[in-house]
Every structure is written in C-alpha cells, then in structure tokens.
Structure of ABC transporter ATP-binding protein:
Amino acid sequence: MLDVRALASGYQKIPIILGVTFQVADSEFVGILGHNGMGKSTLLKTLVGQLPATGGAVRFTGTDVTRAPSHKRARLGLGYVPQGRQIFPGLSVLDNMRMGAASAGLGDDVIDEVIEALPRLKPILGRAGGVLSGGEQQILALARCLCGRPKLILLDEPTEGIQPSIIDEIIDILLALKTRHRLTVVLVEQNLEFIRRLSDRVLIIQKGRITGEIPPDHLHDDALVAEFVGMSAH
C-alpha cells in the first residue's frame, strides 16, 4: 500500500530525513520507534505532503505522490493525525468531524459510521473541542481523520498526555478498525507498550535513517531495546 524509497527531506537547508526506505502492506500496522529529534515527525510530515521531499519517492496505492499536495493525498486515502491533535478548539465535536469529511470531499453521511466506531463521542457531539479532556481530544482527532475514509493513517505520538484508560480504549478502537475495515497504520510513538500491542513490525529510526527492525514482542526486553534504540522498556 505504501512504498517509500530513499526518501529525503528537511527544513530549509537542514537535512533531517536521510534516505528512508520501507514498505507497508495492506492492513498492516507498522511502528516507528526512536528518541526525540531522530526525524519521526518530520518523516510523517513528508509522507503526508506537509514538507516537500528533497529526494527519493513515495508511492501510495500504486500512485506516485512524491510531489503531490496534501489534499490530493487525502483524497487518495492517506490520513494523518498530528502530534498535539490540532483539532479546532472553537468548533463542536460534530463540526470538527464535518471538517474532516469535507477535506476529503465527503458528506455528513460518513459521520454516522465514525460515531458507531467511536461511541464515546456520541454524547459530546455539541461540546466545543477546546473543553474536552486530552484523551477525548485525541479520540476526536482520530475521528476527524476517519471521516475522510482513509485507507492508511499516519499517527504521530497519539498517547502523549493521555491517561492509561484512554490509551487502552484507543488501542481497542484501532484493532477493531483493522479487523473490520482493513485499516492500515504507520505509528510513531515512544510508549513502548502501546507500540508493542498494536504493531505487526517495529522499525527503528536514528538520525533520519531507518537502522533496523525489532519484533514487537521483544519490546519488553530492556537490553534488546537499549541495544537497538537506547531506550528503556520500563
């Protein structure tokens, strides 16, 4: 579904992503693990088209999208949930979801499907996004993305600042979407338990390069995680 070849990008003249290559199959969940400053968020922004590629290629569902604008990638089914959620705080939950549908050229009918998958949102549809808890805002950010009917979602640090019970709920939501709708996910995260429970494969990123792969069930092993990433499993 996603084929990334020797991808390079950065900010102005500062290179950050230095020749990243990886593939993601249909209905696969791929985790990308690394310390802060290793290029994880920059990689996702490049894949979604918010940053221009300076080298390499990105193919999505067989289409070369390396130079395509973000809205074209969204229409093809590439979704993005950014770090910090970036919902519209002054809009209601429902209107945030409408914005997600409109960005993909879809009508309000898709919203009912998303509410069925995320029933926590049903009693708060009229509430402003800015007054929600951090966990509710993260679920809303996911809902807004799902209203575009994505085939693949790029998730950037979805557990940041969220209580454990909501983290478990997000895991259950994503696994259900994978089973029922064959959703595909590329997940950037530093919460090792979250990434372990969701990922089919975990790629290691260091200084803008994919340097290896670690089996998800090995993320409990402090010594192995430290060897690959320099992070503690606990």
